[in-house]
Design a protein that fits this description.
- The chain is an alpha/beta fold and 789 residues long.
- The protein has helices at residues 3-17, 23-68, 70-94, 98-133, 140-214, 218-409, 468-481, 500-504, 513-527, 585-601, 606-611, 654-678, 690-694, 696-699, 718-733, 738-742, 751-756, 776-788, and strands at residues 412-418, 435-437, 444-449, 452-457, 460-462, 488-494, 532-544, 547-550, 559-560, 563-564, 572-573, 580-582, 614-625, 631-640, 704-711.
- The two termini are 124 Å apart.
- The model is unreliable at 1-22, 735-751 and 755-789 (pLDDT under 50).
- The structure holds adenosine-5'-diphosphate and magnesium ion.
- The site of magnesium ion has 5 residues, from helix 8 and helix 11.
- This is Kinesin-like protein.
């Protein structure tokens, strides 16, 4: 049961049974009656004071009377004392006055009230004890309220009791005083009666004496006279006594009156006491009711507590049942788990042992692991050293093998590229393609010339549909070998309009070998950047009429000279040839643009000019292997040769003839050099032209050369195509080996000779100094080609 609920019930009970402020009017009444009693007490005190004064006055009067009557009453004193004693005795026998009885009653009543109060206190203590017992229950708050109220009531009762005691004390005092006054009054009355009696007796005696004396003679008369005199005195005294008596009687009356009033006051006091008692009784009944209510509440609470306990108990029982069921399940589980626990314990113990041994094991393992690692590191280091040694040896071997391969394969290779038919070729039978290809062999092409099909075998033939990409793929191995420190030359040879510039430079959207080679070099250099430092630089030059000009220089017209290096290394160099360092494709584009602009400003007809001059792009790649300190320098020379068409034959004159002669001479010189190189002649005529002289380093030794022979497929160009292909085949037909060495005496055919040669005719032997040439392989292919035709 909740505390609020209990409190609510208690409050509602109080509202139903009692006025909300009921105890206070009672207190107020008690207080008012207290005040009234206080007033009454004051009044009585005043009256007592007045009585005391009166009594004092009376006493003084009595003292005066007694002094006056001392003589007469002296002898009566003893009697009076006796009488007083008698009165006291009688009084004690009578058992006290009414007031005393009242007082005794009040005392008894008071005692009874005290007993009841004690009983009330006992009950209160019992209640407190019960409250203490009920301290833990939820009705503590209500009990505290009730207790407080009880305390308050107790306090009020205590106050009322104190007031009552005070009143009783007052009554006691008043009763005592009244008793004293009564005693005195009685004494006075008795005294007066005695005095009266004594006086009357004396009066009688005197009258008797007078009468007896009257009966006697003279003497008697004298005596009578004396007695008369005495009698007059006595009479006077009697009168005085009587008046005195009268006064005393009045006083007694008055005292009686006072007594009566005091009795009345006593009665009113008793009434007040009765009222107080009634109030106390009412208050007690209220207390009892409150107690009863409290008990009731406590009972209700007890019931609720019991009910709650019962509910809790039943719930607990249900839960207990569930718990029991669970317990049973757990027990069964426990039974099944026990074997598992045993195995677990066993495992745990073994694990514990392992854990205990683990640090030692770990240390041991670590020690051995460290030793192993150290050993492994040492092994790896030694392996690395060994590998590095092997790698260097391999590098050397590779280079050697490469050189050997190049030597075996020939470091000069000849490719042919046939451009597609263009608008410029016009229409009609002349614009028909005279070139066909071998489906089975990409190194062979057939030319229909003057009704005859002539077949040529090159290292590789690119048909018109071959893309720039495909062409570059075949070239890129050469380009990258430049990174390894080889010198490379790629020439584009052919008549004007055969596609040399297209192959070398290409268009902006479809670049040629030049740009692709540089891009490839950049990416290769980047991929090797971990071990190598590379620097790439470019020069752009032109050879026109045997004059070398720097197209990147400040003065492009200036003719440059090729000179021997002064260091005595035998190397050539071109003083004043500009070399641009390039790091990106953007740099290359800038360089090309610059070179192009220089070339344009230097000539009136670019197309014509370009076809009459050799254009060179010289790329130098310098590398440093950071691990070995090895330095390499490779040169990639990309040459767009002048048109190979036979100008001189058409009877050109003047500058045109001179141009043609220069071109013929330089192309023949190139052919001579290549032939001499390929046939491993002792003397290579590099100095016969500016071009070969400039490229001397890049053509000799283990350098690599690619001749890209460009041809037009158009019927009308078949003669020029034939010449170009003859040039290509002748370059290629120079065989390596002992036979080729014999070719030392043979010179390169002139353009005219080329033109005059016919395929398949015996004249081809002009390139071969002995009838045994050309070699069996070429002859057999040729035979095959001829039979197919
Ligand atoms: P050259 O430099 O030998 O005088 P060009 O490179 O200027 O010849 O080529 C002449 C024309 O033929 C140009 O218009 C060029 O675009 C075109 N041409 C050459 N080769 C190809 C090819 N493989 N594919 C498409 N067009 C080509
Ligand atoms: Mg060109």
């Amino acid at each position: 049961m909740s505390l609020e609920k209990a409190g609510g019930r208690f409050c509602s009970g109080k509202r139903a049974g009692l006025p909300a402020q009921r105890p206070f009017p009672v207190i107020q009444k008690v207080v008012a009656s207290m005040a009234h009693l206080q007033e009454e007490k004051l009044r009585l005190q005043e009256e007592l004071l007045a009585l005391q004064e009166k009594l004092a006055a009376r006493e003084s009067e009595e003292i005066a009377v007694s002094v006056q009557l001392r003589g007469q009453v002296e002898n009566l004193k003893a009697n009076l004392r006796e009488q007083a004693q008698e009165i006291g005795r009688l009084r004690s026998e009578m058992g006290g006055t009414d007031a005393e009885k009242h007082r005794d009653l009040l005392v008894a009543e008071n005692e009874r009230l005290r007993q009841e109060m004690k009983a009330g206190e006992g009950e209160l203590r019992e209640l407190r004890r019960q409250q203490a017992a009920c301290r833990d229950c939820t009705h503590l708050q209500e009990n505290a309220g009730l207790q407080e109220r009880l305390c308050q009531l107790q306090r009020e009762a205590e106050e009322a009791r104190a007031k009552l005691a005070e009143l009783e004390l007052e009554v006691q005092q008043k009763t005592n005083r009244l008793a004293e006054v009564e005693l005195r009054l009685k004494d006075s009355l008795a005294e007066r009666a005695q005095e009266e009696e004594r006086l009357s007796r004396r009066l009688r005696d005197s009258q008797e004496t007078i009468a007896s004396l009257r009966a006697q003679p003279q003497q008697i008369k004298y005596i009578i006279k004396t007695v008369e005199v005495e009698s007059a005195k006595a009479k006077q005294a009697l009168c005085e006594s009587q008046s005195r008596n009268q006064y005393l009687q009045e006083q007694v009356g008055m005292q009686r009156q006072v007594l009566k009033e005091m009795e009345q006051q006593l009665q009113s006091s008793q009434k007040t006491a009765a009222q107080l008692r009634a109030q106390i009784a009412m208050y007690e009944s209220e207390l009892e009711r409150a107690h009863g209510q409290m008990l009731e509440e406590m009972q209700v609470m007890e019931d609720e507590k019991n009910r709650a306990i019962e509910e809790a108990f039943s719930r607990a029982q249900v839960e207990m049942k569930a718990v029991h069921e669970n317990l049973a399940g757990v027990r069964t589980n426990l039974l099944t788990l026990q074997p598992a626990l045993r195995t677990l314990t066993h495992d745990y113990n073994s694990l514990k042992r392992q854990v205990r041994d683990f640090p030692l094991l770990l240390q041991e393992t670590l020690r051995s692991a460290r030793a192993e690692i150290g050993q492994a590191i040492e092994e790896v280091n030694s392996t690395n050293r060994e590998l590095l040694r092997k790698y260097r040896r391999e590098l050397q071997l590779r280079k050697k093998c490469h050189n050997e391969l190049v030597r075996l394969k020939g470091n000069i290779r000849v490719f042919g590229r046939v451009r597609p038919i263009t608008k410029e070729d016009g229409e009609g039978p002349e614009a028909v393609s005279a070139v066909t290809f071998d489906a089975d062999d990409d190194a062979v092409l057939h030319l229909l010339h003057k009704g005859k099909q002539v077949s040529f075998e090159l290292d590789k033939v690119f048909p018109p549909q071959a893309s720039q990409e495909e062409v570059f793929q075949e070239v890129q191995a050469l380009v990258t070998s430049c990174i390894d420190g080889y010198n490379v030359c790629i020439f584009a040879y052919g008549q004007t309009g055969a596609g040399k510039t297209y192959t070398m430079e290409g268009t902006s959207t479809n670049p040629g070998i030049n740009q692709r080679a540089l891009q490839l070099l950049f990416s290769e250099v980047r991929s090797k950047a971990a071990d190598w430092d590379y620097a790439i630089s470019v020069s752009v030059a032109e050879i026109y009429n045997e004059a070398l000009r720097d197209l990147l220089g400040k003065e492009p017209q200036e003719k440059l000279e090729i000179k021997l290096c002064p260091d005595g290394s035998g190397q050539l160099y071109v003083p004043g040839l500009t070399e641009f360092s390039v790091q990106s494709v953007e740099d290359i584009n800038k360089v090309f643009e610059f070179g192009h602009v220089n070339r344009v400003t230097e000539c009136t007809n670019l197309n014509e000019h370009s076809s009459r001059s050799h254009a060179l792009l010289i790329i130098t790649v310098r590398g440093l292997d950071r691990s070995t300190g090895l330095r390499t320098t490779g040169k990639l020379n990309l040459v767009d040769l002048a048109g190979s068409e036979r100008v001189g034959r058409s009877g050109a004159e003047g500058s045109r003839l001179r141009e043609a002669q220069y071109i013929n001479r330089s192309l023949s010189a190139l052919g001579d050099v290549i032939y001499a190189l390929r046939s491993r002649q002792g003397h290579v005529p590099f100095r016969n032209s500016k071009l070969t002289y400039l490229l001397q380093d890049s053509l000799s030794g283990d350098s690599k050369t690619l001749m890209m022979v460009q041809v037009s497929p158009a019927e009308k160009n078949s003669s020029e195509t034939l010449c170009s292909l003859k040039f290509a085949e002748r370059v290629r037909s120079v065989e390596l080996g002992p036979v080729s060495r014999k070719a030392e005496l043979v010179s390169w055919p002139s353009q005219e000779q080329l033109e005059g040669d016919l395929p398949g005719s015996s004249s081809r032997g002009h390139a071969s100094p002995s009838p045994g040439l050309p070699s069996g392989r070429t002859t057999s292919i040729r035979r095959k080609l001829q039979t197919s035709a």
